[in-house]
Design a protein that fits this description.
By secondary structure, the chain is of the alpha+beta class. The protein is built from 14 helices and eight strands. Strands 1, 2, 3, 4, 5, 6, 7 and 8 form an eight-stranded mixed β-sheet that branches. A hairpin with a 3-residue loop joins strand 6 and strand 7. Helix 1 crosses helix 11 and helix 9 crosses helix 11. The relative contact order is 0.11.
């Protein structure tokens, strides 16, 4: 990738000046930012917001962030919190591994850094869930370190600005983009500059229908000049998502329903759910319940089918309902709850949908 060859000192100086001016006028008021440009930022707020903002839109994160820091206002509070509380506060944001990593990072910050979020990229990257981008964002925004960042928004801005004609997810191209980001970030106001790049990608240089006529750096954007904005950035074609079926079996005994906690590894780890068979077929559900819980249940009745998309899988969820006929719940395999008494447990979005369907279709005594 020849991106660095396209960068002159004059272009870098122009980009920094224009972007910082634009950011000063258009920066959004967000709860994890300082009240004004160049103001002091709470490093803990930056840590939490960066964890939440990974693969999630800003508009979605705001309410979650406010609830999270209201309940857990400091690193120490987060470190000492029960994991189920953390997951409950994260419920609905998805990618729950982020919450578990954030929780683990807080514990390490308390144990090894005297409850102060580290300021160097190297130290930050020792924390669970903190990669090169997150470390650069925290170091620059919270501590004024001239550390580069490269997320999806910044990648898109740079790929268009420099008219990069290779897939931006190719390792050599991505390494080149990191080198570009390093050259661009200024010693003065690096946090504001990095946020300006991200803000430009979020508000102006969007994936579809970019607002090029209002872009502050359009006059030096090569993709805009040659008409390739809507074609760039290029990416390596992804493999089609795997099609799978999961069977959710709502088992009730009187007015209480059986819940189980997912394993510590894998998708939605340690979240709670209505018993879900991810390998068994519809005809095997009665035996599956017997094998897993020690319960004999009536033949399940189908309630509803719905879909859910993850990064790598297209999941068809089939919700069934059945009642216990005989047997005792195997120790440690689950717990019984009324449908209106589950608010303290964290559920992933598909399970929330299943619970809502149950509430709509099953009359609770």
């Amino acid at each position: 990738m020849m991106a660095e060859a396209k960068l002159t000192t004059a272009r870098i100086t122009h980009l920094r000046r224009v972007l910082l001016q634009w950011y000063g006028r258009h920066r959004r008021r967000l709860p994890w930012r300082a009240a004004h440009s160049c103001g002091r930022v709470d490093p803990y707020y930056t840590l939490v917001s960066e964890a939440m903002l990974q693969q999630t839109q800003v508009a979605t994160v705001v309410d979650y962030f406010n609830r999270f820091v209201d309940r857990l206002p400091t690193v120490r509070a987060l470190a000492s919190a029960d994991e189920q509380v953390v997951l409950r506060l994260w419920q609905g944001l998805g990618y729950y591994r982020r919450a578990q990593h954030l929780h683990a990072a807080a514990k390490m910050i308390v144990d090894e850094f005297d409850a102060r979020v580290p300021s160097s990229v190297d130290q930050l990257m020792r924390l669970a869930g903190i990669g090169r981008y997150s470390a650069g964002a925290i170091a620059s925004i919270a501590y004024g370190r001239a550390s580069p960042i490269l997320d999806g928004n910044v990648t898109r801005v740079l790929a268009r600005w420099l008219a990069i004609e290779q897939p931006v997810d190719a390792p050599k191209v991505r390494d080149g983009l990191w080198q570009v980001a390093q050259r661009l970030v200024p010693q003065s106001r690096p946090g504001d500059f990095n946020q300006a790049l991200m803000e430009l990608g979020q508000l102006v240089c969007t994936p579809k229908r970019p607002q090029c006529k209002t872009c502050p750096v359009a006059n030096q954007c090569r993709a805009y000049k040659d008409g390739s904005v809507n074609r760039l950035p290029l990416r390596t074609p992804r493999r089609a998502p795997q099609q799978v079926s999961h069977h959710i079996v709502a088992i009730h005994r009187g007015d209480k329903y059986l819940l189980e906690q997912r394993e510590a590894k894998g998708l939605w780890s340690r979240m709670w759910q209505i018993p879900t068979a991810e390998q068994a077929s519809a005809g095997q559900l009665t035996q599956w319940v017997k094998d897993h819980f020690g319960l004999t249940v009536a033949r399940p009745r189908k309630v509803k089918t719905f879909g859910h998309q993850t990064t790598h899988r297209t999941i068809k969820f089939v919700l069934w309902c059945s009642c216990v006929q005989t047997g005792h719940l195997r120790r440690g395999s689950g717990l019984w709850r009324r449908l209106d008494a589950m608010d303290d447990l964290p559920f992933a979005n598909p399970q929330h949908r299943a619970l809502k369907l149950l509430q709509d279709t099953v009359q609770t005594p």
